[in-house]
Write a structure and sequence with these properties.
heterodimer, A: 88 residues, mainly alpha, 4 helices, 0% strand, globular, B: 453 residues, alpha/beta, Rossmann fold, GMP Synthetase, Chain A, domain 3, eleven-stranded mixed beta sheet, six-stranded mixed beta sheet, 28% strand
């Protein structure tokens, strides 16, 4: 498992908190898939994560974002997307 | 004596009425019919079609074209390759429909017929007559396991339900302007199918094509809609939308279904958006059959097209206009007067998550079939209906297997929403003398595990 960057640790903690996961934030592999294999999240979780992101980072996720599936492909991709679009 | 009609036109809307909104672009009924005729002419000659369009307008054109050819549309909101294989196993003669545009997150079957409506504004296509008894669609239950159970929908039942819903929700507005329906539920889920695909064909509504998954998309579509607006959604989406703080335009109604809506959430939405929050009661087998305004209390009012009949001391069946047989209710209900009832609770074997249903017995059977699992049980958390983060858990007795291996085996067969969030290995389950697992014994096990964790 590769190391979490600072923003990745922050987003991992946000996901664990929003979804009440039993995994600890440090255990999330930044390159493993968030959905299906890996963390095993589902579409209800995507909505919860989107809500947590809008509260913390001040921007909204959209379905027509370029490659929505890519954004949720891993903690690393999601964190990079947040870095790019965050308003706070 | 008045003759009972044996067929109904595909649509009863005038040719110039707006039937759909694709973004800002209104599609009139006449132009829709032209799109339907163009697609119908190139559909293969097969009895079944699996609609996999994500674009809601494409989904409707596909459905209407198939029905006009006498074909049956199979409805599945799960577009995964696994689900496609399951359905194809029961309907080997099916073909598939998919959006013409590429979806970077999903791969269409290579032989799918692509839907790309392109009729020019102002064109008007023919309005086919559909026999009322013709099976127009099939809905499936069992979001979880094994072969899907099929529930055929005669055209007459779909039209009757749409008209009853239009009447109940006041959608044929006296000022003659259509109501725009923005929906967060997929067009292939029975609730989304009724409210956004069949409804605009026979009630003065225009469905918005979407996508509407994230709060900002829903709010933007509603703001852009001219005239009357209705939001069709679920408790989870409503909660996310309210929590996002998106400002909302004036709405005629918010309609919720798929899971029980908490009165506190209904109240908060009514207050924040100044709108009545209405709830629909229904199921894939029977469609929508009743509604209530959640803040007014627990009584549901049946649609005009539905009657309830007691079939046993503790069982009811719904007689639904257009359906050949009464449909047993999954919930225990108590009638109050002729057309009102209250829910007394659901049968404990059925668990609902994300608008999908699974039988705990069949989930447990899958668990027991995993190699190395000697015993095991799926456990439903008490707050499943009100906590969006709540998921099932599993206790398993499997000395030679790891929790990860059991989860991986379940993932091969179980819909993601029903996968346990935690698999806990235990030395034994607290079964009683006849091999049953009493709720109090499971609760004690849970407390014991929490204490030792």
């Amino acid at each position: 498992m590769s190391c979490q960057l600072a923003i990745e640790s922050e987003v991992a903690a946000l996901i664990v908190e929003a979804l009440h996961l039993e995994t600890s934030a440090e255990q999330i592999d930044p390159e493993a898939p968030l959905f299906g294999e890996g963390l095993g999240l589902d579409s209800i979780d995507a909505l919860e994560i989107a809500l947590a992101i809008s509260r913390r980072y001040g921007f909204q996720l959209r379905s027509d974002d370029e490659r929505n599936g890519q954004i949720f492909a891993s903690l690393r991709n999601l964190s990079a997307h947040i870095e790019k679009h965050r308003q706070r | 004596m008045r003759e009972i009609p044996a067929s109904a036109a595909l649509t009863s809307r005038p040719a110039e009425a707006v039937l759909f909104r694709r973004g800002a672009e209104p599609v009139t009924c006449g132009r829709f019919l032209a799109d339907v005729a163009a697609l119908a002419a190139r559909l293969p000659d097969r009895p079944y079609v699996l609609g996999l369009c994500a674009d809601r307008y494409n989904a409707l054109v596909g459905f209407a074209a198939a029905v006009s050819r006498g074909q049956v549309m199979l409805l599945s909101s799960d577009r995964s390759a696994r689900r496609q294989r399951e359905i194809a196993a029961s309907y080997p003669e099916l073909y598939t429909l998919a959006d013409a545009g590429e979806d970077p997150n999903w791969e269409a079957p290579p032989d799918a017929v692509r839907v790309a409506p392109a009729a020019a504004a102002g064109t008007v296509g023919p309005n086919p007559l559909i026999p009322l008894g013709q099976i127009a669609a099939v809905g499936f239950t069992s979001g979880s396991t094994g072969a899907p159970a099929a529930h055929p929908k005669p055209w007459g039942a779909l039209v009757a339900a749409a008209k009853a819903a239009g009447e109940r929700f006041g959608l044929n507005h006296p000022d003659g302007r259509e109501t725009t329906v923005v929906a967060t539920v997929p067009p292939q889920h029975m609730y989304g199918f009724e409210t956004t695909m069949v409804l605009p064909l026979h009630v003065a509504t225009a469905s918005h094509a979407g996508p509407h998954f994230y709060p900002v998309e829903v709010a933007e579509a509603l703001h852009a809609a001219p005239g009357h607006r209705v939001l069709v959604t679920t408790p989870l989406q409503m909660r996310a939308l309210l929590g996002s703080g998106q400002p909302m335009p004036k709405l005629e109604a918010v309609i919720s279904a798929t899971a029980p809506l908490e009165a506190s959430l209904a109240e908060a939405v009514e207050r924040a958006w100044q709108v009545p929050v209405l709830e629909i009661y229904g199921a894939t087998e029977m469609g929508s059959i009743a509604s209530r305004r959640t803040v007014e209390g627990p009584l549901w009012r049946l649609y005009r097209s539905v009657a309830l009949r007691r079939t046993a001391a503790d069982a009811m069946a719904a007689e639904v206009a257009g359906l050949p047989d009464p449909v047993p209710l999954a919930d225990a209900v108590e009638l109050e007067g002729k057309d009102r009832f209250r829910l007394l609770g659901r049968r404990t074997d059925i668990v609902k998550l994300g608008g999908k249903r699974a039988s705990l017995a069949s989930l447990n059977a899958l668990l027991h079939a995993i190699e190395g699992v000697r015993d095991g049980v799926f456990v439903v958390p008490e707050d499943l209906d009100r906590n969006p983060a709540a998921r099932l858990a599993v206790y398993a007795v499997a000395p030679e297997r790891s929790a990860e291996a059991i989860l991986a085996a379940l993932r091969q067969q179980v819909d993601p929403v029903f996968l346990p969030r935690a698999v806990t290995l235990v030395p034994a389950l607290p079964r009683d003398a006849v091999g049953k697992l009493p709720q109090h014994a499971l609760a004690a096990l849970r407390r014991q595990l929490a204490g030792t964790a």
